[in-house]
Design goal:
Layout lengths: L3 H21 L3 E4 L8 E2 L4 E9 L5 E9 L10 E7 L5 E7 L10 E10 L3 E2 L4 E7 L4 E2 L18 E7 L2 E2 L12 E7 L15
Parallel strand pairs: 1-8, 2-9
Antiparallel strand pairs: 1-3, 3-6, 4-5, 4-7, 7-9, 10-12, 11-13
Bound molecules: calcium ion.
Calcium ion (CA) binds next to loops.
């Protein structure tokens, strides 16, 4: 028969063993594929990519990269960055900064990659490739300026000219970014009649 004191000792040993087992687990970091929103527009500015941690619970800093083709107009700010996991934290978010330019272009891929962790290791889902869709229309040439009517005070008259152009979205409803009208302000000739004042006695 086991004495009560021995049971207590056994329980303590089991608890210590469990704690050691938990702390000895290695953190494994993975990206979380989420393509439910398959259309990523450059104009949305930010794409949040989730990272999960399994295994360990210790603080760890994960290094990652965000890269796009070294084209004339990269779709992300290519960079190497870090993501901090605090004690017991199991999820974190990488905010990918999209470049919202005004250049009409084709969809462009970019890649998010987990590189390493200060404590733990990178899992099998270490890299995901996305595609950023352009939202810029193709602008046509501007039509000529249409002069406005001069108005305002006689010594500060001005007119507002306008001009227009058409933009082509090539039947792509996501291409919405294009300015179709423009204005300019032009000074008009002064129309005040000069007046002269004679000094008294002249
Ligand atoms: Ca663009």
């Amino acid at each position: 028969m086991v004495k009560p004191g021995a049971w207590n000792l056994l329980v303590v040993l089991v608890v210590i063993l469990q704690c050691q087992t938990a702390h000895s687990q290695v953190s494994v970091f993975n990206l979380v594929p989420d393509f439910t929103s398959t259309i990523i527009l450059e104009g949305q500015m930010v794409l949040n990519v989730n990272v999960t941690r399994g295994g360990g619970t210790e603080p760890s800093t994960v290094t990652y990269t965000v890269t796009s083709e070294p084209a004339v107009s990269p779709v992300v700010d290519n960079d190497t960055l870090t993501l901090m996991f605090e004690q017991d934290q199991t999820q974190a978010v990488i905010p990918v900064q999209l470049v919202d330019d005004a250049i009409p272009e084709t969809s462009q891929p970019f890649v998010v990659t987990l590189v390493n962790a200060s404590s733990g290791s990178i899992g099998t889902t270490s890299s995901l490739t996305y595609s950023a869709r352009d939202d810029d229309q193709i602008p046509g040439d501007w039509n000529g300026w249409v002069e406005g009517v001069c108005g305002g005070p006689c010594d500060g008259r001005f007119r507002t000219d306008t001009r227009t152009r058409t933009c082509n979205n090539f039947s792509d409803p996501f291409r919405t970014n294009c300015i179709t009208s423009d204005t300019r302000t032009v000074a008009c000739p002064i129309t005040c009649v000069p007046t002269t004042t004679k000094a008294p006695g002249c």
